[in-house]
Amino acid sequence: MYRDDSIFDHIQKNTSVDQDDVQNMASAAQGADFQDEESVRQLIHEVAQMAGVRVPKEKEEYLVHAIINNQVPLDFASLSELFRD
């Protein structure tokens, strides 16, 4: 797996999530069915728990809809905006 330590440093600085956790979550997400609502909700809950943040129900609904309908941006800046309050 390609590792760009500056990205991991940025993630850890802003979320307190370490590189190993990010890589483990990425590996788990690779096999996820992003068309299955239950799988998507589970992934959202796991990411939120790992990052130590609460995802309000309305934000969860928005994220689930965006992911299932392939409306998730591919660039990091736009993607991170989805998780801001």
TrEMBL record:
<dbReference type="InterPro" id="IPR025942">
    <property type="entry name" value="SpoVIF"/>
</dbReference>
<dbReference type="Pfam" id="PF14069">
    <property type="entry name" value="SpoVIF"/>
</dbReference>
<protein>
    <submittedName>
        <fullName>Stage VI sporulation protein F</fullName>
    </submittedName>
</protein>
